[in-house]
Amino acid sequence: MIMNINATILGQVILFTAVVVGILSFYLGKRKTQTPILATIIGIILSFIPPLALVYLAALVLKNDVETID
Fold first, then answer.
1. pLDDT tens-digit readout, 10-23
2. With helix as H, strand as E and coil as C, how does 1-70 read?
3. For the residues 57-70, what does the mean pLDDT come to?
4. Which among 63, 11, 64, 19 has a CA at the least distance from the CA of 43?
């Protein structure tokens, strides 16, 4: 049995993943890093390969919180 992959659906899945991972990366980056924009850009780039995006989000979740110096 041959499975056909529709390019439109694949593109929509990648776009949806990029948006979700981008939002989560920004939220986690704001709480756990000093550079939330860089964390967001890295998350969006890695979202084109969803398993890498999940590993990146897991690394952000498990990262220790940044202590702010005031």
1. 889 889 999 999 99
2. CCCCCCHHHHHHHHHHHHHHHHHHHHHHHHHHCCCHHHHHHHHHHHCCCHHHHHHHHHHHHHCCCCCCCC
3. 80
4. 19
